[in-house]
Amino acid sequence: xxxxxxxxxxxxxxxxxxxxxxxxxxxxxxxxxxxxxxxxxxxxxxxxxxxxxxxxxxxxxxxxxxxxxxxxxxxxxxxxxxxxxxxxxxxxxxxxxxxxxxxxxxxxxxxxxxxxxxxxxxxxxxxxxxxxxx
Length: 134
Prior knowledge:
Layout: H1 32-41, E1 44-47, H2 51-60, H3 71-82, E2 86-93, E3 96-106, E4 109-117, H4 122-133
Antiparallel strand pairs: 1-2, 2-3, 3-4
Helix pairs in contact: 2-3
């Protein structure tokens, strides 16, 4: 485990790097090139249909030594999803999961935790869709 902010056997600490990006869904606008890309490729998007898969995909998209999303963290996010507090947006090409994002809902705030793209622009499309549906 590469995590430098907590060690095995110790409590998982909250980490809040500065600065953090803040998006207002009311004013969020995707880049014109992304709109054009989606019009051409027609990726399908779903919400909360494969949350555990997105969490695991985000963790496995980096070498184990470089991810902060340890097995313990993955299990915690899955538990939050089962409680309705962790949500995901999944991006599909045909029946293949090609990217997405997940995060935690705290009141009226959604804290994005991680994104992943296995194909070009998949995570950007997930963010755009999520902002649009809020």
